[in-house]
Every structure is written in C-alpha cells, then in structure tokens.
Amino acid sequence: MTLRLLILACLTNAVMGLLYVWSLFLLPLEAALGAPRSALSLIPALALVTFTLGMMVHDRLLAALRFRAFSLLAFGFAGAGHLLFAFDGGYAALLTGYGMLFGLGAGLGYGLALALVTRLPTRVRSLGLGLAMAAFAISGVVLSGLFAQPIRETDPTAGFLIIGLAILAAGSGVTAFLPTQPARPMAVQECARPAAKPRRGVRGPTAAPGQPASPDDRNRWTGRSAARCRSARPGVFPEAYQ
Q1: Which pTM value belongs to this model?
Q2: Do 181 and 67 contact (CB within 8 A), yes or no?
Q3: Tell me: the pLDDT tens digits for 190-204?
Q4: Fewest CB atoms within 10 A around its CB: which of 188, 195, 208, 218?
C-alpha cells in the first residue's frame, strides 16, 4: 500500500507538472493564432490563478467525494482543457480550456497528490513528499528536453490533442489503483488517543479492566468533546487509516 500510494502521488504530480510545458507552445501558438505575445501571456497567468483556486478547494471536495471520484474530476478537467482547444483551435477555447479547466484540474490533482502523501507512514512521509514535489517539477524539464523539437514542428491543436488524451489515459490508470476509502480528518483519529493524565475533575474511562475504552470514554479522558472531533477540518488522512 505504501509503495502504491507513493507511485500514484508521483504520477499524478508528474501529469499536473505539464503546467511548465507552456513555453514550448508559445511560438507555435503565436504563429497559428496570430495573437500578440501579450494576449498569450494572459493564458498561463490565468492557469496559475485557477491552479491556486483548485488547491484552495481540494480539501473540501476530498471530504465530500471518494478518492476515485475526485481523481476523475481532477484528470477530467486537466484533459478536457487540452481537448477543448484541440477541437476548436481558437483563442477563446485556449483561454477557457488551458487557462481555466486545465489550471483548475492541475490544482485539484496537486492536492490529490498531497493527500496521498499524508497517508504514508510517518517514517517515509517526508521522503514521499519530496519525491512527489520533485515529480511535479521534473516532468516539465524532461518533456521539454524530449519533445521541444516535435512540438515546434507540429500544429498546436495536434499537440494539445495528444497531451489531452495522454492526461485522460494517465488519469484512468491512477484512478483504477486508488483506494476506495473516503477522506477522514486526522483530528478525529487524534481525539481517540487517551491522554497520559485525565483533567482535574474528569472521571476516567468506565470500561471494564482489560477492555478497550469506547470513543466517548476516550474523549472524556482527554477532555475533548465529540463536537470538537466532528468539527475537525477534513482532507488530512491519519497514518492508521490505511
């Protein structure tokens, strides 16, 4: 499970790292669309804004959706953003598809990769986070080195079509191997941990000797109320919930 989550997190971030490949399409798009450089520069700027928006809302969506549904949403937006321009070929489709749909999908996918890393055991979590972040940056460098010349010589709509289909194919693979559990807040797990000492005036667990205490007993023992546990922020996964 640990290795699978790490591979899925790195693959997801590698796909979303296509955000860095925009510069390769700048000259072909400028020639194909006849648009000035200033107009084309608005598109990656908008993509960064929607990327940030996706990062801001990903935890709320993860709390409401299962992993696989969330993954389909993220990869669907990212792939559809490229395909929209591939089938339309206009500046408005590029602004909407790449600037809005792909940027939003990339932000959601980045959040998905982070959520997968938080489910790794503590001893390898830092390493997993570093590898996932490296995958996000390195994918753009690798693709730029391998496909710079073909992209310059190919019609931009054909390039966007290939990338869009590749994103959907990668998203299908990632989704198929994701765990099916819904999101669980880490704070709920922490509420169940007994404290070393009870609060003054609070009665300890009422379970029989040798029997595990119930969650309600544990909450009384630690001084945490059930309401505080339920109101914990979702989207962060405890190590024990695997």
Answers
A1: 0.73
A2: yes
A3: 444 444 555 555 455
A4: 208
